[in-house]
Amino acid sequence: MKFYLAFLLVILAVAVADKDDDFLWKSFKLEHGKNHSPEKELSRKQNFLKQQRKIEKHNRENNGWKMAHSRFSDMTDQEKSVVRGARMMKRKPQDNENAANFPDDVPRNIDYRANKCLQPIRDQGHCGSCWAFSAITALEFSKCKKTGVAVALSEQMLIDCDNSNSGCGGGDYTRAWQYAYDKGGAMTLASYPYVSGAINHTSVSCKFNSAAVAVNVSTYDWTYPYPNATVTMTYLQSFGPLPTTIKVLDSLFNYASGVYSDPACIVADENDVDHAVVIVGYGTTAATATAPATPYWIVRNTWGTGWGLSGYFFIRRGVNMCNIESWTAYVRVV
């Protein structure tokens, strides 16, 4: 009798769990506008439920940061790899000419998110164009900082025209700056809108128009020495937001809040990176009874405002988490 009752309870628990899973799946599809074909519905649901179990386990065991579903939750690993578009060249030695211009100390925190020179978060969509967005963000801020007038520039110009990079196949923001320098500048976003994020987009020829150029590159370089959090902080104060490159683990796709940290993302090889982002600030969490104060970077991503903290995320500072402190660079405009 006891065995029979236990068996019934197990059956009931499974039925309730299945019902809950169905509700979560339907809610996810509605929230993210997912409409799969009958052939793909089952595999997409399985991907989603796999992420659901990971999220539940992580949030039970980790107090430092939390996970939640994002538009990536039902995607395959191959589909998620598309938005990792950093293909970095090896750095050349530099003479650290700007060190003498650095302030003697740095503020306790910096946050450029509300600065008028930082354009709204954009979405690279189904394209490995993070390198172009990182390059453009720094150019926009640098020009606005110099003139006092906000400007929106074109990533699509770099994707279509810069043959030193590979468009949606990936690239390097410093090569993008070199292209803009050689070409005579970067065009406005209004004159050359972004279209590469669409799944059905096909490549088009370069439509560069010098009459629509709004920014000219003067100089650019890597921060030095690296990796060094304090040095990065001084460059951030002097130049504004700094493009950099990170190693993206699967856990980051479902980042929701807190200071991201993953032991698997302490990467021994500094060349093991695949996604370009922009550091726009830093700070330190307040210590609590259960957790010490944690220094962090504020990072701008290009996965849309529906991801993370309205498009941003915090990541642990001072330990070169995911190689974030190895690839910071700055640019000056004419």
From TrEMBL:
Signal sequence region: 1-17
From the UniProt record, give one GO term of the biological process aspect: proteolysis involved in protein catabolic process
Where do the Peptidase C1A papain C-terminal domain residues begin and end? Answer: 106-332
Q: Record's Gene Ontology CC terms?
A: extracellular space; lysosome
What keywords were assigned to this record?
Disulfide bond, Hydrolase, Protease, Signal, Thiol protease, Zymogen
Q: Which PROSITE patterns match?
A: THIOL_PROTEASE_ASN (PS00640), THIOL_PROTEASE_CYS (PS00139), THIOL_PROTEASE_HIS (PS00639)
Domain (Cathepsin propeptide inhibitor): residue spans on this chain? 25-80
| MF-aspect GO terms | cysteine-type endopeptidase activity
Is Hydrolase given among the entry's keywords? yes
Protein origin, superkingdom? Eukaryota
Q: Is the keyword Signal assigned to this protein?
A: yes
InterPro entries named among the record's database cross-references:
Papain-like_cys_pep_sf (IPR038765), Pept_asp_AS (IPR025661), Pept_cys_AS (IPR000169), Pept_his_AS (IPR025660), Peptidase_C1A (IPR013128), Peptidase_C1A_C (IPR000668), Peptidase_C1A_papain-like (IPR039417), Prot_inhib_I29 (IPR013201)
Question: What PANTHER family does the annotation carry?
Answer: CYSTEINE PROTEASE FAMILY C1-RELATED
Family note: Belongs to the peptidase C1 family.
The protein's name in its UniProt record: Peptidase C1A papain C-terminal domain-containing protein
Q: What's the source species' lineage?
A: Eukaryota, Metazoa, Ecdysozoa, Arthropoda, Crustacea
